[in-house]
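Backbones bend. To wit:
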Amino acid sequence: MFFKTKNNIPMIPYPSGKIHIGHFRNYMINDIYNRFLFLINYKSKMLISWDSFGTPAENASIKNNMFPINYLKKNIFFMKKQLKSSHLSILWKKEFKTINTNYYLFNHLLISKLIKNNLLYISNKKINWDDCDKTVLSNEQVINGVGWRSSCAVNKKNVLTYYFKIKYSINEMYKETENLDWPDRVRVMQKNWILNRTFYYYFYFNFFRKKMKKVFFLKYFFSFFDFFSKKVKLFNKFNKLLNSGYFILDIYLNIKNEFWFLKKKKNYFLNYKNIFLKYFYFKKLYINIIYKFKGLTILEFLILFKFKKFIISNIKLKIKDWGISRQRYWGTPLPIYYCKKCKKFYNLNFKNYVVLISRNLKNNINYFKILNNLIICKFCNSKSFKEINTCDTFLDSSWYFLKYFKKKYKYNLIFPIDLYVGGIEHAILHLLYSRYIFKILRNLKYLNFGEPIKKLFSQGIILNKVLKLKEVRIEKMSKSKNNTVIPDEISKNYNIDSLKISILRNPFNKNFIWRENIIKNSNLFFKNIFKKFTLILKEKFFKKFFFFYKHKIIFNFIISNLKNFLYLTNKICYDKIIILFFRIFKIINFKKIFNIFILKDIYFKILKNFFIFFPSTIIKFWKLLKFKNVLKINFKELYFKILLKNSYKLKKIIILINNKILGTFYLSILKKNI
């Protein structure tokens, strides 16, 4: 009997060539957690799909003089082989590609709904232009003035582009980031990118002129002027100025985001006559906005900020609207006609959606010739053009979770996703866009929920050496830098599970540097275990039940360590489990056990628990020792230890007669009663 369904989905891969260890690390986390849930009688499936649109496939097809579909089919076929050889529990029945018309037809329906609700507009703004890929890039795709994929310098250029209006749902997204079960680092990154800054308008009467005036300033001035009024030592130098009634000619306050604590090193405030602001110094201050105060005395200036009756707040955001259109051929086509005369756009009929993309083209040039069709405009009866631009690939990857489950009534029951595994580099791009689109689908009454992901686990980056002229650097593992390590090449010389141990040794939250010595040590470790099993089979141990006190201590120590195993797998602390795995085998080697019955019982419990991590090798050991039944964990033990761990507490009770221990048992007591 299964109790509940749990969805654990990895990030959608791009079929660019071969799977390297960075990808394998992501799928391995999901695979281990899936096996763990399945053994505790949860319905859990590992699902995978292919994000097959984008500029890399188009650039590769132009270089190799071939169609992008043929290029992608070869890559997908090879990557499938790699995943199947690595013994991952993937359900291949629900596999799909974003090229399929059944998939990107939903993008067209979504765009048509946005046009009806006035959430999509066109404008000719200055935007980021990549000269290498010859496309528009959003602000999230530009990292330190360089394109995120091409690593070329980005320039500003006026281009007609279509935009999604993000500002309608961004305030809700900003507030809900605190309630999410995500890592703190990801939440801070999203908050800083949105940057919901509140401004205030203060209306006050000038004491001398008796006129209404308006001043525009930030909320962070409160901390500044509270500090100003409290510090009496600084006022001693200004006693003459405060009483004499000098007028302030011009004070310019330059502020962007926040004030931090004060320091006495540098002056950040600027004014014509340095009257009193030169004594205030801050550690951090971002210069962006200029504020002016004219004709006020210092007393008026101080009283102004204590008067808080007429306040009107206003919100300003750092994030801008999402530019969808890309000047490329290989992508989901925009189902829009645009009229140059009346400067209006409207969506196509439902029948024409699928016909838009033509898969047998190689270059952008042919694409412009074929799809430059003319239609009469609805509004002004002049010629209107079919839109040549395609959608951003992040629109395809923002809602792919829903495609795994075809029946619509299951969406509200199954979602949000229980665990989503991916890299931290997608914190701003992919995760932020997916949150926005799910909010739109909820507002359009397709879904009952607004957040797609309940729990997020962000993995670290694997670093490797990059060879350059006259230098060697350690950088992120990627295909563009030619520093990838492919798991198939390692599995020829070593076992796959030895590769798993070398990855699992390091914590998944942090980055780690790849070295070949790690695999050699882990492979030797498995060989030493295999020797022990062969000794048991040759019957070099005592069959009689000689039970020493030393063996009892070792046996109890191993069982007490295995109790932590269940808690750590639920928290995805796999590096601590493998330390525990090494520790147990060191104790067995150091303190020699000659009793075959104790050894078999210890190995039985170790193999049963660590089957989740190393299924291929443990099945071999299981058959060698001739254990009966299939590998399964007792559900009652796990239910008692994990699921009721938060509400109940175990209390050990020892039975003593004449100061001799006869036995022990455990009582489960509610935490409220303790």
Remarks:
- The longest strand covers residues 120-130.
- Residues 324-396 form one domain.
